């Protein structure tokens, strides 16, 4: 059987593009020298927050707008998406940070101690108020990747190292710097803990002027803590300082994290362009999908849909639109 499209890269961007093309009836091949998703790719170390409104604090308008369809796309593929919203908190000395965050974002409700206690009993005793982003969601990135790989395999699409056929779509992340000279790496470090004495049912963002933290529950008392943001393409070597900052901030959120079991320390570099927005570009007959920065799971669905419209229907992608 002839192949319509070859996708280079089996990270979240490549797998979403392959899924979207296959869903539309195209024949697809996925190439990756490292094989199936794993520790070698930054998609493995993501938080999995589908939180476009929270991202609006610092991200450009397209991130918020395009990200609002992410949860529905993932759920439509059969991925387990948790729709519990998210919470934004600040310690007493950082109360102004919460007000600033509220001014810069949308679709939230400022809730008091009683409402917070009803949502997260372990936090209501420690915080007097919070921002509740009810429409947001989260998923487990590793399970999501495995699900896409499984669904593609059921369509006869395996991850291979065979020669490319058909039109090439490059989703290699930082590896594409050999062709995309303005692509840079932004290093992120994360920690996975088991804290059976802490119960959280939704992602938590703890604001801090220097060390902001997010915590994503993975179930069974397991939590992902992330993530640093360092201007560096280094893809290894988590530093003691960064890990200490993550752990200290988690302890400030709830002292029970001090007794947690340290399961993993992860580090990788996210691919980003100078404006921190993703791009779909054509060069030398190859379509490049890259620059998802720290919004991989949030923006990969929209990028995949726009890519499919471009390569199958000739419709040019529009990141910037509907801007007041």
Task: Write out key terms for the chains shown.
single chain; 324 residues; alpha/beta; eight-stranded mixed sheet; six-stranded mixed sheet; 10 helices; 17 strands; 26% strand; globular; FAD-dep_OxRdtase; FAD-dependent oxidoreductase; oxidoreductase
Helix content: 25-40%
The total of helices stands at 10
Poorly predicted sequence stretches spanning 5 or more consecutive residues: none
Order of helices and strands: EHEEHHHEEHEHHEEHEEEEEEHEEEH
Structural class: alpha/beta
Shape type: globular
Distance between the termini: 48 Å
**How are the strands of the largest sheet arranged?**
6-7-5-12-13-14-11-15
Major beta sheet summary: 8 strands, mixed
* Count of DSSP strands: 17
Supply Rg: 20 Å
Quote the beta fraction: 25-35%
Quote the average pLDDT.
94
InterPro entries: FAD-dep_OxRdtase (IPR006076), FAD/NAD-bd_sf (IPR036188)
GO molecular function, one term: oxidoreductase activity
Domain FAD dependent oxidoreductase: 4-310
Protein name: FAD-dependent oxidoreductase
Would you spell out the secondary-structure blueprint of this structure?
Elements: E1 5-8, H1 12-23, E2 28-31, E3 49-50, H2 52-55, H3 61-67, H4 70-76, E4 81-82, E5 86-90, H5 95-104, E6 109-112, H6 113-119, H7 121-124, E7 129-133, E8 137-139, H8 141-154, E9 159-160, E10 167-170, E11 184-194, E12 204-207, E13 213-219, E14 222-226, H9 240-253, E15 261-272, E16 279-283, E17 286-290, H10 296-313
Helix pairs in contact: 1-8, 1-10, 4-10
Protein name: FAD-dependent oxidoreductase
Organism: Cognatishimia activa
GO molecular function: oxidoreductase activity
């Amino acid at each position: 059987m002839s192949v319509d499209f070859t996708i280079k890269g089996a990270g979240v961007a490549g797998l979403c593009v392959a899924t979207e093309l296959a869903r539309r009836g195209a024949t697809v091949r996925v190439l990756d020298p490292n094989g199936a998703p794993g520790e070698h790719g930054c998609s493995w170390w993501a938080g999995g927050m589908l939180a476009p409104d929270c991202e609006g604090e610092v991200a450009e308008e397209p991130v918020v707008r395009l990200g609002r369809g992410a949860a529905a796309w993932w759920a439509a593929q059969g991925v387990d998406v948790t729709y519990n919203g998210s919470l934004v908190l600040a310690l007493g000395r950082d109360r102004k940070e919460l007000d600033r965050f509220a001014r810069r974002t949308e679709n939230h409700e400022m809730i008091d101690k009683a409402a917070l206690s009803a949502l997260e009993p372990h936090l209501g005793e420690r915080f007097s108020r919070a921002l509740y982003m009810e429409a947001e969601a989260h998923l487990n990135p590793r399970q999501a990747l495995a699900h896409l790989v499984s669904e593609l395999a059921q369509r006869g699409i395996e991850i291979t190292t065979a020669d490319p056929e058909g039109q090439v779509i490059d989703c290699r992340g930082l590896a594409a710097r050999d062709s995309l000279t303005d692509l840079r790496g932004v290093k992120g470090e994360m920690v996975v803990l088991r804290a059976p004495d802490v119960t959280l049912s939704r992602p938590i963002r703890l604001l801090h002027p220097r060390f902001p933290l997010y915590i994503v529950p993975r179930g069974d008392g397991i939590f992902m803590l992330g993530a640093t943001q360092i201007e560096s393409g280094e893809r290894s070597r988590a530093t003691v300082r960064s890990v200490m900052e993550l752990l200290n901030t988690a302890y400030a959120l709830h002292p029970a994290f001090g007794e947690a079991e340290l399961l993993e320390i992860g580090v990788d570099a996210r691919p980003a362009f100078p404006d921190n927005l993703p791009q779909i570009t054509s060069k030398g007959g190859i379509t490049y999908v890259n620059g998802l920065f720290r919004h991989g799971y949030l923006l990969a669905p929209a990028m995949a849909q726009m890519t499919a419209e471009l390569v199958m229907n000739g419709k040019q992608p529009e990141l910037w639109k509907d801007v007041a």
